[in-house]
Amino acid sequence: MKISLVKILNRNKDKHLLNINTFKGYKVINGVKKPDRVRESLGIFLWVNPKGAKQKQHNKETQIKADFRLKRLINEYESGLYNVYNPENRKINFTDYWLEWADNHCSGDNTDTTKNRSNFSQFKTSLKHFKAFRGDQLTIGDIDFSLCERFARYLSKEAIKYSDGSKLKTASINAFYKKFDLVVWSLFNKGLLIGTHPAPRRLIALPKIIQKKKEYLSIDELKSLDYNKCDNPQYAKAFMFACYTGLRSSDITSLKWGDVRFKEDGSQYLYFAMDKGDEPIVIPLIDQALDLMGDRQEDSARVFPYFTYHGNNNNRLYYWLKLSGINKKLTFHDSRGTFITNLIVKTNGNLEVTRRLAGHKDLKTTQGYNKLIDEGKDDAMDLLQKALQ
Questions:
Q1: CA distances (Å), 258 to each of 52, 276, 297, 373, in order?
Q2: For the whole prediction, is pTM greater than 0.85?
Q3: How many of the other CB atoms lie within 10 Å of CB of 35?
Q4: DSSP letter string, 4-62
Q5: Among 246, 244, 242, 268, which Cα is nearest to 257's?
Q6: Residue 294: what are its φ and ψ, rounded to 5°?
Q7: Which of these CATH numbers, 3.30.530.20, 1.20.1050.10, 1.10.443.10, 1.10.3210.10, describes 219-388?
Q8: Low-confidence residues of the chain, pLDDT below 50?
Q9: Is 256:270 a contact under the CB 8 Å cutoff?
Q10: What is the pLDDT of residue 110?
Q11: Left if phi > 0, otherwise alpha if psi is -120 to 50, otherwise beta: which for 212?
Q12: Disulfide engineering: 289 pairs with which of 137, 238, 244, 302, CB 3.0-4.6 Å?
């Protein structure tokens, strides 16, 4: 048994993604001897070439965290916890394991603590449904296909929302089974169960989620908007700004004047990181967006200081749009969809430029295309601005 920390260079070659590699020896598959190893992502990274005190401190703290995780895993293996040949492991209480694993899975490795809390809350709610279904005395050895199938059926037919006693919606059923599925998968990844997953999601008859047709604002509808018609003009301004930039509500809340920069020709752009640890993206600002921002303030000041987002603001959005002759039920996040879909149309389907402007993490282009795509950004925004005039 050999356990080691492995660094994997990301696509942009600016980060080392940290993984723990567990080499258990060799196994024979179809007469061929193959290494038996498990690689687990820690969900954290080190900067390859840290710039400034902040990134250097990040590397220092992350290395300490990774070393701790590695040492703890080695100690657990040495104590026999992960001995796949130890039948005692099958007697471990499943619900206790579920809660502990979910707590570790949603720990501070992720820099977004809000997402951590939300994710862990879903694990706990799913566990609450499981206990209502089967109690809390189940052991790991009791996990089989029949149990998984019956839990899925319970979520679909019997489980209720704890807030109001109504039946679970299809999306919730799928989400709660997914959490259960992740916990079961972890049992095999850690060697606590031998063989294959008894009932992964693809083999379980979960109700299908019917995707509602997404609605966005067309160029003509966007041009018809007047923030003064809204009972909260600051909210309306933020929504319109999001339609012109693709920013999320959380981005607009944290947007500061220091994020607004000037080019040599006097035009302005956003230099903004959508998530902590991400590389900032460049979003050219068209005239319609600039008009909504008002006079420039000091760099530390918020661009939209009076904007706060709450889910109940969707009703405000609905009535404001209706006053503008638009009969669509949108959420604030649909402003981002408005930006993206209108860009795709006005750039003749140039998805690469649109993806870069939207700041999608998993669609970053290679380093060699950066200059070409950045030039295309200005052209795309010019097309959008002309269409809005």
A1: 18, 16, 9, 24
A2: no
A3: 9
A4: EEEEEE-TTSSEEEEEEEEEEEEEEETTEEEEEEEEEEEEEEEESS--HHHHHHHHHHH
A5: 268
A6: 80, -165
A7: 1.10.443.10
A8: 83-85, 108-114, 349-351, 360, 362-376
A9: no
A10: 44
A11: beta
A12: 244
CA 143, CA 104: separation in Å to the nearest integer? 21
Residue 332, pLDDT score: 87
- pLDDT value, residue 262: 92
Q: What pLDDT does residue 292 have?
A: 93
Encoded tokens for 56: 């250097």
| Interatomic CA distance for residues 321 and 360, integer angstroms | 28
Place of tokens 């690689």: 39
* Per-residue pLDDT tens over the stretch 269-322: 888 776 655 677 788 898 999 999 989 999 999 999 888 877 667 888 889 999
Nearest to 217 by CA among 332, 99, 337, 132: 337
Residues 139 and 93: their CA atoms lie apart, in Å, by: 4
What is the rounded distance in angstroms from the CA atom of residue 22 to the CA atom of residue 42? 13
Q: Do 12 and 364 touch, CB atoms closer than 8 A?
A: yes
* Interaxial angle between packed helices 170-189 and 145-157, expressed in degrees from 0 to 180 and rounded to the nearest 10: 160
How much is the pLDDT for 112? 45
